[in-house]
Amino acid sequence: MYSAKIPCLSRISSNEKTCSLLLRRFAFKSDLKIKWVRPEKISCIRPEKSGDIEGLPRINKTQLAPKFSNSKELETADETVKKLFTLEFAPRKDTNEFIYNSIMDKVKQHNFDVSSAEVKIAKWTGKIRAMQEVMERFPRNLKSKVTLKELIERRKKHLKWLRERDYKRFEWLLENLNVVYKPNPAVICKPTRKDSLRKLTAKYCEDIKQQRLDNYQAFLKSEQPAFLEEKMRMLAFIKEEQKECDVEVTVTDAEIEDIRKQLDELKKKEDHSDQM
């Protein structure tokens, strides 16, 4: 007796589900034109994260290396011999040292300044940019990667200290070194699909709302000349009716003239926009 009723109940329940789906008043995610792509993870040693806007400066490699610049023997030497002692044939360590000194010369307080915070930060900036170029060629060099990360954090720590002590000096240093200060975030929030879709959906709804408001505003602007003409006609009609009925006239000629001026200005703007 009960087995005969089970198919009927199941059929009714399936029909109710179908009707509820057909009569639904909500949207599925597939109905919204929203697509979320997981952002690419940027390494902490990349210039985008460290704040280095530019790389190492280009130097003139035809000049003598600093340790041979005061050599008296090279003054009378052959050009081929001089070329061997230029930066072009110098080891990378000497070339980088020359670049570090040129960067430090920009922020030195005096000629013998080697230990101020600005000089230290400038030297670390040169090392960071040199190691970033190395990491682009050898991304699997873990030792250099760890060293580079430590240098970036050390520079960030000293920049924070300088920012708290002397903000003007801090801004001047960033401008000379062409560095953007990017402190560590107080709270690290990893991007998730659920939260990102919520934000994208909220933005999508706000864009639709703003678009409809803009369309409605454009519609009202297009109807404004006809509205002013109708208003001017109605005010003139009310004024004539009040005169005929011998009652106090509440509509003045100045009000009608103001509306006429507004109408003329609107027509001039429309003609100017059509010509443009």
UniProtKB/TrEMBL annotation:
It is found in: Mitochondrion. Residues 249-276 form a coiled coil. It holds the Pfam family Ribosomal_S15. One of its GO terms (biological process) is mitochondrial translation. One of its GO terms (molecular function) is RNA binding. Its main location: mitochondrion. SUPFAM superfamilies: S15/NS1 RNA-binding domain. One of its GO terms (cellular component) is mitochondrial small ribosomal subunit. Keywords: Coiled coil, Mitochondrion, Ribonucleoprotein, Ribosomal protein, Transit peptide. Belongs to the universal ribosomal protein uS15 family. This is Small ribosomal subunit protein uS15m. It comes from Exocentrus adspersus.
